[in-house]
Structures are given as structure tokens and as C-alpha cells.
Design goal:
- This protein is an alpha/beta fold.
- The chain is about 35% helix and about 25% strand.
- It has helices spanning about 15-25, 50-70, 80-95, 110-120, 165-170, 180-190, 245-255, 270-280, 295-300, 310-320, 340-355, 370-375, 380-405, and strands spanning about 5-10, 30-35, 40-45, 75-80, 100, 125, 150, 155, 175, 195-200, 205-210, 240, 260, 285-290, 325-335, 355-360, 410-420, 425-430, 435-440, 440, 445, 450-460, 465-475.
- Strand 3 (about 40-45), helix 2 and strand 4 (about 75-80) form a beta-alpha-beta unit.
- The model is unreliable at about 215-230 (pLDDT under 50).
- The protein binds S-adenosylmethionine (SAM) and iron/sulfur cluster.
- The site of S-adenosylmethionine has 18 residues, from strand 15.
- Iron/sulfur cluster (SF4) binds near residues 157, 159 and 160.
């Protein structure tokens, strides 16, 4: 009998993709994904520890599992991801409903762990690895629109930003074999996907070296049977593949596919990457470049490895290479020791860059981090909240300005699905990652997700654009 698994993901895009890797591993063990916890034999919560609030949400959800178990005595419940890593046995001991705890590098052991759980025992594996990249695992796409997909290119993080728990929960940084990345993108294209987002905590430090097992192209058949890309950097051209090389390899391997990536780190973002982005039409003109703070003093305490001036120089470099590139960011309000002047510098930085979009957070102290050990969490909650509200209000104005600037322009839009607000409309994104709403019908033809169209932008809000469809593009995108 088919076993049914329901996987619920919290937190970042990497967690969403990790859940798909887990579904891939479990598929081999006879599990089929289902859409609700009620139908499942196994519920897995893939968790996030980035802020205290994120953990609180999951702890509440774990409690709700008691009701489900009361109705289905055979149900098994597992906790995966960052909270599994951080809280380990604590979860098994304090939350009786939990049968299984598995950290981000131990998903391959799920079949054995589930066997143990099947005999009525509890199971845990939170070992971190220096090598695991799940390179050859074929993810099972969950909740997919069939148009856009995530591809993880590296795992872990070596940066030790003072506020961040990720290095403790996801371990050391390691890069995935470029050939397996290219093969996964080709496979997605063959299955009708039109956009991939390459994921890593700091994609700019992606590095694959010959000693990692790099196979020279042209020396025997490839594992996926595909031909090497016709031009651009081949693995044998250099002993090391960096992020710019990888981007180019993917751009050439799937020329009709849109390529995005996240996340860039300002200290590591090179002009070589920007030049590759500018060269290929199928690499989207959008960069997520978290600033965290506009004050060099705060950035120093955050251990971010750059100053305000360095960050602004990187913004200038982006504008030089791609004047039409959209830029988004992450901002933390009220980090340890942040003064009103530091806060004003964050606001002025936002104004100088003119971000298209931002994720904005109140600082939340995380156990074990450098900040928790070294600095007092001394900005009162009301003050953090006030600063955050000011940051949010300013960003809303900036987003509205950026979006208004697109009105009247013609943009290429990849249709992703039906608009949440109106069944008569579809939504898609332009290269700058802005949501564009268009009518569902075009000249008596119903537009389908996965179609590239040209749209004239007619109006805007701070969160989306509205447009009229001019035509459909059959040959999606042309490589420069
Ligand atoms: N690796 C990415 C980077 O370096 O920007 C982002 C990683 S993290 C998952 C996403 C964002 O969460 C961070 O950029 C930061 O703004 C925010 N964040 C991380 N730790 C936080 C904390 N302790 N309190 C508040 N926000 C935090
Ligand atoms: Fe966390 Fe910094 Fe690594 Fe991003 S780069 S995951 S913020 S430690």
C-alpha cells in the first residue's frame, strides 16, 4: 500500500527546496506526497529558527499535531530542518507527539529512521556534514505551479554574521557539483518549467574545485547523457568554477529558461557576476542584496564584512552593468547598540539605493550567536518596533516610486498562474521580479501559465503592476 506524506515548510526558499529533496528521498521509500496533514500517514514539519517568532509558530503547530494523532493512532510526526538541529532531543523529550527529529544534512537517513519509528521507537539524526549536497537526488516538486522551480547550488554558511543562527543550524558551506546543477536545470526545462532560481545563503562564494571531483567535459559521456554546452566556459577551461562561471553554464545550457538566484552577499559580489548577468537576456535583471543596516558601526558589530561605502560601491557597480536592474534587500531594525543616528543612516541608505522591495525585521536574539554572547540586546522592543515601522513606511513609498516608473513601458512577462484577486486575470513577473497582472484572455485566446508575453504596463501600486497584453512570445528569450 502507498504510504502518504505531508510536508509543511516554514522559512526560506531553501527550506521549500529541501522539502522537495526530502520528498525525492521518500519517493524511493514508497511515499507519495499529499496536500493535507489529515490524509497523511507521516507529517513532516520542515522548520525555521531564524527568529524567535518563527520557532514559536512551529511549536504551536507541533501542539496541534496532538489532535491529529488522537484521530489517527498510526500517524507519525517528524520535525526537520533548523529547529531539529538547534533543539534536538529537547523536541523529542518535551513534545511527546514528535516521533522523529532530523537535521538538514541527515535526510538521506530518513528511510532507516522511519523504519525505527515504525517499531514504536523515537528516532533522531542531527549530524551535520561537510560534504552533503544531495547533488544527485531528484527533488519531487511540491505545491508547484509547473512554471518556476528552485535549484539549490550550495548548502550551509561560513560567514558568522553576529545575529544569525544559520551557521549553527545548517553547518559549513559547501558547493554542489556544477554538472548536477546543469543536469537538474535541463531536466526541469524538458518537463516544461520556464524559470529556475539558484539558491544558496551566499551564492557569490560558490566554488567548485577540480579536487572536488570536477570532470573535464569531453572526457567520456556525461552522467545525464546530454551534450556539453556549445559555447561559454566548459569545466575543463578552468580548474575552479565560481558563481559567475556557473551562471553562464546554466544560461547556455537552458537558453529558453529564465534564471534567477538568491542570495548575494555584498562583501563577495563581483563585477564578473554582474558582467555575466548583463551578457545574457535569460538571466533576470534582479538582485537581492541584503544590507541589514546603513550604518558602518552597526555593520561592523554585525560582522558583515563591509561598510556603508563598500555597499554603495556595489550598488553603483550594479547600475553601471545593468541600469534596469531591480534591487531588493533585507533590513534588521534595532540590532544591539543601534542608535537613532544609526537608524537614520539606514533610512538614508534606503533612499540612496531606492530599493524595489525589502524584507524588514525586528532584531531577535538567537542563542549561541556572536551577538547573543557578546552584545546586550539593548534596544527596547517599542523602539525596535517604531524604527521598523519607519523603515516599512519608507519602503512602501520607494516601492511605489519604482513601480510607477514602469508605467508606459513594455515588459516581457512570464505567466505563472491565476490572480488571487480575480479569476479573469493572470499574474506573472517581469525580469525585475515585479508581479504583473494581465487579463486572462488575449484576442479570444486564453493565456496559459508558462507563456511568455509582452505587456504594456498601464498602472501600478507599491506591490504590483497592471498591464495589457500586446502579444505572446513563442520563442521565449534569446541569449545575447
Ligand atoms: N544568507 C542571507 C544573507 O546573508 O543575507 C540571508 C539569510 S537569512 C535566512 C534572511 C534574513 O533574515 C537575513 O538577511 C536577516 O535580515 C534576517 N535575520 C537573520 N537573523 C536574524 C535575527 N536574529 N533577527 C532578525 N532578523 C534576522
Ligand atoms: Fe546568516 Fe550571514 Fe550566513 Fe546570511 S551570510 S546565512 S545572514 S551568517
Amino acid at each position: 500500500m502507498q504510504k502518504k506524506v505531508y510536508i509543511e515548510s516554514y522559512g526560506c526558499q531553501m527550506n521549500v527546496n529541501d522539502s522537495e529533496v526530502v520528498a525525492g528521498i521518500l519517493a524511493k521509500d514508497g511515499y507519495t506526497p499529499v496536500q493535507s496533514a489529515e490524509e497523511a500517514d507521516l507529517v513532516l514539519l520542515n522548520t525555521c529558527s531564524i527568529r524567535e517568532k518563527a520557532e514559536y509558530t512551529v511549536l504551536q503547530r507541533i501542539n496541534e499535531m496532538n489532535n491529529l494523532k488522537a484521530r489517527n493512532k498510526d500517524l507519525k510526526v517528524g520535525v526537520l530542518g533548523c529547529m531539529a538541529e538547534r533543539m534536538r532531543e529537547d523536541l523529542l523529550e518535551k513534545k511527546k507527539v514528535v516521533d522523529l527529529v532530523v537535521g538538514p544534512d541527515a535526510y538521506r537517513t530518513l528511510p532507516e529512521l522511519l523504519e525505527k519509528v515504525g517499531t514504536g521507537q523515537k528516532a533522531v539524526n542531527v549530524l551535520l556534514s561537510r560534504e552533503e549536497t544531495y547533488g544527485e537526488i531528484v527533488p519531487v516538486r511540491l505545491d508547484t505551479n509547473g512554471v518556476t522551480a528552485f535549484v539549490t547550488i550550495m548548502r550551509g554558511c561560513d560567514n558568522m554574521c553576529a545575529f544569525c543562527v544559520v551557521p549553527f543550524t545548517r553547518g559549513r558551506e559547501r558547493s554542489r557539483d556544477p554538472e548536477s546543477i546543469v543536469a537538474e536545470c535541463r531536466d526541469l526545462w524538458a518537463r516544461g518549467y520556464k524559470e529556475v532560481t539558484l539558491l544558496g545563503q551566499n551564492v557569490d562564494s560558490y566554488t567548485w574545485r577540480e579536487e572536488n571531483g570536477l570532470r573535464a567535459a569531453g572526457h567520456g559521456p556525461r552522467a545525464d547523457g546530454a551534450l556539453p554546452a556549445a559555447r561559454g566556459p566548459q569545466p575543463e577551461a578552468s580548474a575552479t568554477v565560481d558563481f559567475a562561471d556557473l551562471l553562464e553554464m546554466v544560461a547556455l545550457a537552458v537558453p529558453g529558461m529564465r534564471i534567477r538566484y538568491s542570495t548575494s552577499h555584498p562583501k563577495d559580489m563581483t563585477d564578473k557576476v554582474l558582467a555575466v548577468m548583463a551578457r545574457y537576456d535569460n538571466i533576470c535583471k534582479y538582485i537581492h542584496l541584503p544590507v541589514q543596516s546603513g550604518s558602518s558601526d552597526v555593520l561592523k558589530r554585525m560582522n558583515r564584512g563591509y561598510t556603508r561605502e563598500w555597499y554603495l560601491d556595489r550598488i553603483a557597480a550594479i547600475r553601471r552593468h545593468m541600469p534596469d536592474c531591480a534591487i531588493s534587500t533585507d533590513i534588521i531594525a534595532g540590532f544591539c547598540g543601534e542608535t537613532e543616528e544609526d537608524h537614520q543612516q539606514t533610512l538614508s541608505m534606503m533612499g540612496m539605493v531606492g530599493y524595489d522591495m525589502a524584507f524588514m525585521f525586528m532584531y531577535s536574539e538567537r542563542p549561541k550567536t556572536l551577538a547573543a554572547r557578546k552584545y546586550a540586546d539593548d534596544v527596547p522592543t517599542e523602539e525596535k518596533s517604531r524604527r521598523l515601522q519607519e523603515i516599512i513606511a519608507l519602503q512602501k513609498e520607494l516601492s511605489a516610486q519604482r513601480m510607477a516608473g514602469y508605467v508606459g513601458q513594455v515588459h516581457e512577462v512570464l505567466i505563472e498562474g491565476v490572480s488571487k484577486r480575480s479569476a479573469e486575470h493572470l499574474y506573472g513577473r517581469n525580469t525585475q521580479n515585479a508581479v504583473v497582472i494581465v487579463p486572462r484572455m488575449h484576442a479570444a485566446t486564453e493565456l496559459m501559465p508558462g507563456t511568455f508575453i509582452r505587456a504594456r504596463i498601464t498602472s501600478s501600486t507599491s506591490g504590483s503592476l497592471q498591464g495589457d497584453v500586446l502579444d505572446m512570445i513563442n520563442e521565449p528569450l534569446v541569449v545575447a
